[in-house]
């Protein structure tokens, strides 16, 4: 496909000046309209070396209000970025609603330049393409506009530009040995790019090829295309309506008699047995924490459960013997103003641990299919979409080498009532109980149905749910610790076997 593109296309100066003036005014207007409509925009610049990405980004942003956009230049990943899933650094740079983010190279670097350099094996390519597609679909499903531009020039034009850059002291640093190597193997690199374009040209985020030999022609085409995309996004938003209709939560009878109905809540443990076992497991975990740090294994632990089910107590016993420099606990509350203007997973991606560290979430991204679903804070379509989005997020973490475990702490309704009353009567614990806790209790059946569906749809081999029998706190705490210890031991053995 790329070799058949007419790269000789040009535009005369007068036509370019006229087009630039018209499109600049249009882009400025559309940027303001998108801001008012709360539409986030990502513009991706990919292409051949020396095809003019930096120049074209600079020309495009001259038409925009600088207070409403950010530009990110993505070179080779830093040491910090290499210690996290490869999409992490892009999730953390998502634009807020109404803002624009421009990327000079992007998440496609892994499947183009790094593939060319042999840093990603062919066996890993299908997974990388799948991760990229799911990333873009999740964002566009949430209302993001993704505009992807591939700037193309010929081998001869690229070689000429490299020589021009090298002839000046001010620009010679911009041409590297890797650039010349890709020029020398131009056809192979072009083939890699072509496969990338074919596999990632999806309906929600299609590619546009920019013939970049003539910089004025490329600039005019880019400005016109970006304006058309923003105009279309505003039109589609108007058709859908500005306000998302809140739906009455639908109980899924299919999952009514599900996982929770089979949990044996009579399981118990004596205080003496608990103390002996908890001490042993905490020491083992302390040792394993050191080993996962040396082996650079990231760990993600999520805790969900009924109010007063004992999440905080389980987390305290889990962390009591760990080095505080190697873990962090993230309590999840209602999203703040900044979090509300991003994709709902954005705030959790910001806390993905680097390799060798542990992230513990006291309530998690599963709020989307629990409280947001039941309380009507998102639409039915949004929470139904979330099952696949969450599975894909956890798969990306696991593919990057992380241990991912999710705990549902389960108690029955009578035990919850007893603990609520105990908190109310104890001045030291009264702060733990609120009117909202009692109100949520009235929706027990709705939450139970949602939990059953969540457990069935999102318990995977790479990120399993562990339902913890929680009526006896001693038993629950030991069960959590034992599960974590066993999972880390298995991962350490796997890593050593494969090293």
Task: Please characterize this protein's 3D structure.
- The chain has 499 residues and is α/β, with parallel strands linked by helices.
- The protein has two domains: 2-240, 3-Layer(aba) Sandwich (Rossmann fold); 253-498, 3-Layer(aba) Sandwich (Rossmann fold).
- Helix content is 50%, strand content 12%.
- It has 20 helices and ten strands.
- It has helices spanning 13-37, 53-61, 79-82, 88-91, 113-116, 125-141, 155-166, 177-184, 186-200, 215-240, 271-294, 311-319, 337-340, 346-349, 371-375, 380-399, 413-425, 435-441, 444-458, 473-498; strands at residues 41-47, 69-73, 100-104, 145-152, 207-211, 299-305, 327-331, 358-362, 403-410, 465-469.
- A five-stranded parallel beta sheet has the order 2-3-1-4-5, with helices on both faces. The chain has a five-stranded parallel beta sheet with strand order 7-8-6-9-10, with helices on both faces.
- It starts with 12 loop residues before the first helix and ends with a helix.
- Residues 243-257 have low confidence and may be disordered.
Features:
Rossmann fold, five-stranded parallel sheet, alpha/beta, 499 residues, 10 strands, 2 domains, 20 helices
Summed over residues and divided by their number, the pLDDT gives a mean of: 93
Return residue spans where pLDDT drops below 50 for at least 5 consecutive residues. Answer: 243-257
CATH fold group of the largest domain: Rossmann fold
CATH superfamily of the largest domain: P-loop containing nucleotide triphosphate hydrolases
Q: Just name the CATH architecture of the largest domain.
A: 3-Layer(aba) Sandwich
Order of strands, main sheet, comes to: 2-3-1-4-5
